[in-house]
């Protein structure tokens, strides 16, 4: 009988250890791994309070985890890609307008994929952060720049970073890269 109690106690201790080590994927290290730069942003917004930041991210995950992105048709993908190229071309003559247009285009694209409507930027960017945490920072920066925050170089950087989210969204699950306009090379001097 004593042996059975000892074995049972060992099993409980091992199970508890495994749960603590691997079972908390929605907390601490799991959230840090899942959200990457968004985790650090949340901690900074909560003045270093990791517990509050992790609570916010856990709630965000619960709200938006089940969102299922709808795929774009090839025609929609081509149209969005052409529109992004026009935004980039506009940057040289009107950087402020270009970043505002990029912000609006990303909001529309996200909405068309099934994310919350872009009328509520916070809710839409939170949902995007659950599914595209590595790229959503570019959207946040272009949104701020579109409201007039930053100089021309900051707007250019924001547009370049937002392109990362655009590329991920416009290809949403397809294996092929975004087809770019051959007259608009990446190194053409614009964003």
Describe the structure.
This is Secreted protein. There is one protein chain. The chain has 191 residues and is an all-alpha fold. It has helices at residues 2-22, 28-35, 37-45, 50-64, 74-91, 95-113, 121-131, 136-146, 152-171. Helix 6 (95-113) crosses helix 8 and helix 6 runs parallel beside helix 9 (152-171). It is elongated and about 85 Å long.
Radius of gyration: 21 Å
Number of helices: 9
Total tally of structural domains: 2
Order of helices and strands: HHHHHHHHH
Oligomeric status: single chain
Helix content: 55-70%
Please state the overall shape, judged from the principal axes of the Cα atoms. elongated
Q: Identify low-pLDDT runs.
A: 18-26, 175-191
Task: Give the mean pLDDT.
Answer: 80
- Into which percentage range does the β-strand content fall? under 5%
List the helices and strands and how they pair.
Elements: H1 2-22, H2 28-35, H3 37-45, H4 50-64, H5 74-91, H6 95-113, H7 121-131, H8 136-146, H9 152-171
Helix pairs in contact: 2-3, 3-4, 4-7, 5-6, 5-9, 6-8, 6-9, 8-9
Brief summary:
This is Secreted protein. Residues 177-191 have a biased composition (Basic and acidic residues). By secondary structure, this protein is mainly α.
């Amino acid at each position: 009988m004593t042996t059975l109690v000892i074995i049972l106690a060992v099993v409980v201790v091992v199970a508890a250890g495994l749960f603590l080590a691997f079972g908390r994927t929605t907390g601490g290290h799991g959230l840090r791994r899942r959200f990457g730069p968004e985790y650090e942003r949340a901690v900074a917004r909560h003045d270093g309070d990791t517990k509050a930041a992790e609570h916010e991210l856990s709630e965000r995950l619960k709200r938006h985890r089940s969102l299922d992105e709808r795929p774009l048709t090839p025609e929609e993908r081509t149209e969005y890609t052409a529109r992004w190229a026009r935004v980039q071309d506009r940057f040289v003559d009107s950087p402020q307008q270009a970043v505002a247009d990029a912000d609006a285009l990303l909001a529309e694209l996200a909405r068309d994929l099934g994310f919350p409507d872009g009328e509520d930027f916070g809710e839409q960017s939170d949902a995007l952060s659950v599914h595209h945490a590595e790229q959503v920072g570019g959207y946040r920066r272009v949104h701020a720049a579109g409201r007039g925050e930053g100089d021309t170089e900051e707007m250019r950087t924001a547009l370049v970073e937002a392109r990362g989210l655009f590329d991920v969204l416009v290809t949403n699950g397809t294996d092929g890269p975004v087809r770019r306009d051959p007259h608009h090379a990446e190194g053409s001097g614009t964003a």
